[in-house]
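INFO batch 0412 | record 1 of 1 | parsing
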Amino acid sequence: MKLSHVNKKGEAAMVDVSQKPPTERTAEAYAEVLLGRKAFRAVLHNAVQKGDVLAAARLAGIQAAKKTSELIPLCHNIFLTHAGIELTLNKKNFSVEIVSSVTTISVTGVEMEALTAASVAALTVYDMCKAIDKSITIHKIHLRSKTGGKSGTYHI
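INFO prediction complete | emitting tokens
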């Protein structure tokens, strides 16, 4: 198996995508933040001292998608045509469910942008609620789907 991010010397290297044709590419990622009862109620009633948790997390996730190449060393800088974050409060387990979606017309995919967006949105929820409960956990971060490119469609 040939690894795409390794050069002939076995060193980490950015992939040369200059010969690839641009196509529409999408990706969707998921993260879940388990808040606990007290923090969940504060988010639900928009009573967190730092402000509107869901609005801040949405903006942080979108910004993170746009900054992914600055955070992940071998990611290409990609022009995004869309980046979105959906946050859903789940009363059954006192969590915030996060779904990020990213689209581009480019020569490389946006999976890392979607994963980064979901992760940073989750971290923002934690940051805004940590004064209420430090036992908040972030988990289930994963890619849900991607389209476009040589590897085609992936969906779980």
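INFO post-check: The domain at 23-155 is CATH 3.30.70.640 (Alpha-Beta Plaits).
INFO record closed
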